[in-house]
């Protein structure tokens, strides 16, 4: 899958308020394949009376497995960081990907560590610039290696849920998009759905709208890189 298709999928996700799973992305060969994924999410949105409740129940079951506590009762408004240990948060993020087939936004480093890293990197950059001007341009390469090493060494400290994933309710809303569309669910007609995709695909691939038909293959017919 080329970068153009990744951009297209992200546009689709934003427009329909849904997530395209990793397995689905690997099977997107034609415009019709993409239409089929969107149709399934729209159909599910109309069929399920309360998709958020179903996903929250699944999330609560996962939290109980992660903590080993069958009696834990997380509420939608509760912050994950306040109820789960660092190890449990990391495990929850891994299991979200495995069980829901959705890649959650990565965990952050603690705020103080992020600030300390930023100040350290900036101070090292100033030193590298001075050394490059005074002695050798190789100092900038050393700074780059130093920055990469700092990033790698502090990866084990990533245990803070990012914005949009801080509470159980927010995580539930993210998971809902993996099963149903939450926006523009009125597009149940194939012609109307294709018209929307024509605009998106033409913009992403830089091609004429007339080329976008359900049978068109992204690589062979639309020139996906």
Structure notes:
The protein has helices spanning 3-16, 22-25, 31-47, 51-67, 80-83, 86-100, 111-134, 138-153, 168-176, 190-205. The protein contains 10 helices and no strands. By secondary structure, it is mainly alpha-helical. The longest helix is centred in the middle third of the chain and has 24 residues, at 111-134. The chain has 2 domains: 3-106 and 164-211, no CATH class; 111-157. Helix content is 60%, strand content 0%.
Q: Average pLDDT value?
A: 90
> Level of helix content?
55-70%
Task: Compute the number of strand runs.
Answer: 0
What structural class do the secondary elements suggest?
mainly alpha
**N- and C-termini, Cα separation:** 8 Å
Main β sheet profile: none
Low-confidence stretches: none
Q: Please report the number of helical segments.
A: 10
Core attributes:
225 residues, mainly alpha, 10 helices, flat
Short description:
The protein has 225 residues and is mainly α.
Topology summary:
Layout lengths: L2 H14 L5 H4 L5 H17 L3 H17 L12 H4 L2 H15 L10 H24 L3 H16 L14 H9 L13 H16 L20
């Amino acid at each position: 899958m080329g970068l153009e298709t990744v951009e297209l999928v992200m546009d689709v996700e934003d427009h329909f308020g849904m997530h395209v799973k990793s397995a689905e992305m690997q099977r997107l060969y034609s415009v019709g394949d993409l239409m089929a994924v969107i149709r399934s999410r729209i159909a599910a949105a109309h069929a399920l009376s309360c998709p958020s409740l179903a996903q929250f129940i699944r999330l609560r079951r996962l939290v109980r497995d992660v903590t080993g506590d069958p009696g834990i009762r997380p509420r939608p408004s509760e912050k994950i960081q306040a109820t789960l240990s660092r190890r449990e948060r990391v495990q929850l993020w891994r299991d979200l990907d495995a069980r829901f087939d959705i890649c959650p936004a990565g965990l952050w480093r603690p705020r103080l560590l992020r600030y300390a890293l930023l100040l350290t990197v900036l101070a090292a950059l100033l030193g590298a610039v001075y050394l490059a001007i005074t002695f050798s341009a190789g100092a900038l390469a050393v700074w780059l290696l130093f920055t990469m090493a700092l990033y790698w060494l502090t990866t084990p400290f990533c245990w803070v849920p990012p914005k949009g994933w801080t509470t159980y309710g927010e995580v539930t809303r993210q998971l809902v998009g993996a099963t149903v569309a939450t926006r523009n669910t009125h597009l149940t007609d194939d012609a109307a759905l294709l018209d929307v995709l024509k605009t998106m695909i033409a913009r992403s691939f830089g091609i004429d709208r007339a080329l976008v038909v359900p049978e068109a293959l992204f690589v062979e017919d639309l020139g996906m890189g």
